[in-house]
Structure formats: C-alpha cells, structure tokens
Amino acid sequence: MSGSALFETFARAPLAFERGEGSWLITENGERYLDFAGGIAVNALGHGHPHLVKALTEQAAKLWHVSNLYEIPDQNRLAERLAEHSFADRVFFTNSGAEALECAIKTARRYHYKNGHPERYRVITFEGAFHGRTLATIAAGGQAKYLEGFGPKVDGFDQVAFDDIDAAEKLIGPETAAILLEPVQGEGGIRPFPTASLKRLRQLCDKHGLLLIFDEVQCGIGRTGKLYGYEWSGVSPDLMAIAKGIGGGFPLAACLATEAAASAMTPGVHGTTFGGNPLAMAVGNAVLDVVLEEGFLEEVSRKALLLKQGLAAIADEFPDVISEIRGTGLMLGVKCTMPNTKVNMALRDQKLLAVPAGENVLRLLPPLTTTDADIQEALKRIRAGAASLSKAAANGG
Ligand SMILES: *Cc1c(COP(=O)(O)O)cnc(C)c1O
After folding, report:
1. Which of 6, 116, 121, 243 lies deepest, with the highest CB count within 10 Å?
2. Which residue's CA is the closest to the ligand 1 atom numbered 15?
C-alpha cells in the first residue's frame, strides 16, 4: 500500500502546487511551472484571475447554498446569458461534465417518450469519444479500458468509427433517439469533425427526427477561438453539454437545450442538489463577463496562431519527436513520433505542463488569458524539450 488513503485511480505526477498566477503554477519551494495543461481545459482564465476571485469571495460572504427549492436569481441570469449567446433556450446546471451529459441523454430520451416514442432511446456515438466516467457516459464513450470490470455496459449506445457518417446513417433505426459527438474530440487526440460531416449529421437528424447532441465540455467557452466549437461549422445542435471552462476552476457544468428538446423535462423528472448553487453561479457569470468582452475571442485566435506557428516550426526542426500540429484556437495537439508520455516528461523537465491524449497526441490547453510572453516562453521550453529527445540534436545536428 502506498502512503496515501486515496483511491489509487490517478497516476499522479510528483508535483504539488501551492498557488497560481495567470499561466503559472508555483510549488511550495517556489518552483514555477508554465501551465499549458490548464487543469485539462478548466482554468480558462488562468489562475487567480482577479475578477473570478472577487466574484467568488463576495458571494462566499453572502450565501453559499440554498438548494433548487428556491429561486436563485444568478442562475436565471447565467442561463439567460448562455441562451442568448448560443442556439439554446433552456439550461440545466450540474457540477460536472458527465452529469451534464447524463442530463442531455435523459432529455433526449424523454423528448421521444413525450412524443409517443418510448422505444426511441438509443444514441449513436463515435470512436475516440470521451463523455465522462458515470455508468452511462462510459457506455456512450465506448472505450473498453473505461468499461472493463464495471458490469454490463449500460444499454442504449451504438458506436461507429470516428467521422464515419455513412456507418452512422446505416445504424439509424426505429429505436434511435439521438447522435452524440464532440465537435472537436479532446481526449481522443484533438480531432475536429469536418464541417461537411457535421452538416450531414444535422441533415440526418432532421430527416429521421433525431436530436443532435454536442459535447462541448472541453471545446466550449472560447477554447477554439469562438464561444463554442460548433460555431466554426454553422451547425447547431438540439442539446449541448458544457463544463470545464465555464467554471474557470469552480465545479460547474450545464446542459443547454432548445425549447423543443427540453419540452419533456417537466417538474420533478430530473434534479440536482448542488447544481446551480450561488457560488457556482457567481463564478460562471464572472467567467462570461470576461469571455464575452469585446475582442476577447479574437485575441484567443491571434495568440493561438502565434503558438501554432511556433509549434509547427519546432515540428519541422525535430520530426523524430513531433510529427504534426493539429487543432484550433488554444486547443492544440502535438502529435508525437515517439511515445507522447516520453515527450510529456521531457516538457515537464523544462517545467512546462501539457496533457497526453489519444492517438499519441500531447494536448496544449493554456489559459485563454495567456500572454504573448508566456507563449514565447512555452515555445522556448518545448523546443528545448524536443531537442533533448531528438537524435538530430544528440548527433550535434
Ligand atoms: C472532461 C470531459 C467530460 C467529463 O467531464 P467531468 O467533469 O470529468 O465529468 C466529458 N466530455 C468531454 C469532452 C470532456 O473533455
């Protein structure tokens, strides 16, 4: 047994941080790490953002929790703002991405139930997906490594290969309720669905009366340079899960829906104790204050280009370490030629944090508020990390 009383579910890096400042994390001994993992796309505004700190501490002095038995004015306000800036009309707040997905899946099933089709409950998903770790969301994600040992897979999820829209079309049957996907797969290795595929999926959903569900838990809230990843395609879903960035580090997530999709979610059919509590709402509104500021998203795109171009140059220089740079906005994937875990360690040695993903990709998810100077520093460290691994460099090339 290790010295810890925790479940051993996480293979943690031997690092403990005491505080954070913007794109930086600082250990107890004062060592500074450049945080381009961003708490896995959670710290959208970096660490210690003054507007978020103020919102949370002011709310903490007033009221923490009342339950959803009462009106929570800031919940209405955040829902209205999320609706105003998206396809949605209705919002249900949860604490985690998986719960937001659970809500989306339940809402889709209930929609068909209410419309006289209780037999329509199956959801089509795509390989490489990640939708969370609850029993239903591991079934939706379909990854064997997350399903193993947890009993029968929750029924109602059918999976096709990534971006295989023909296969998805063939799978649509009398029991199909919805199609679920991440417009940009995160854990799957920063894989965007082509716009043409999203358009075809929208058409298929319309033709067969299915609901289109987007999981923007990772790619939403400005990560790709637009408020939502789906905006790049112009294809709107009927339901969408968001989480990670919207809380800026406070546990907050939401299921967004059109009026029609949410119409069967009537009093008593779904609920949550913590979801939408005043602390979370104060922070969520504060995150939106910043992300919706004039010019904020344009800045994300501008900085992202700087980072992507710099990474492309490093990939050109060290093809035996990095084979490709992919992704949009500040959701970038470094496809590695050698094991991504090895590259991740080399970057950590340079005191730069990244996150491994599928397809042997290393994810870079810096705060959306990262600066040009931070990006230059990150590129310097990534180049040094790549050089330390490269044969070309070792041979004095
Ligand atoms: C992280 C993530 C989830 C799960 O969110 P949790 O808050 O860990 O439950 C779901 N979908 C995607 C795309 C994610 O990146």
Report:
1. 243
2. 218
Q: Rounded to an integer, what distance in angstroms lies between the CA atom of residue 340 and that of residue 314?
A: 15
pLDDT > 70? residue 372 = yes
Q: Which pLDDT tens digit goes with each residue over 147-188?
A: 999 999 999 999 999 999 999 999 999 999 999 999 999 999
Ligand 1 centroid, distance to 137 Cα (angstroms): 9
- Check whether 393 has a pLDDT greater than 80: no
Q: Is 346 in contact with 388 (CB distance < 8 Å)?
A: yes
Centre of ligand 1 from the C-alpha of residue 216, in Å = 9
CB 18 within 8 A of CB 47: no
* Cβ atoms 385, 352 nearer than 8 A: yes
The pLDDT-based confidence of 391 (bands split at 50, 70, 90) is confident
Q: Residues 6 or more apart from 69 whose CB is under 8 A from it?
A: none
- Is 125 touching ligand 1 by the criterion CB < 6 Å? no
Count Cβ atoms within 10 A of the Cβ of residue 136 and give its class: 0-12 exposed, 13-18 middle, 19 or more buried: buried
What Cα–Cα distance (Å) separates residue 88 from each residue in 82, 129, 259, 262, 345?
8, 23, 7, 10, 41
Ligand 1 centre to CA of 387 (Å) is: 33
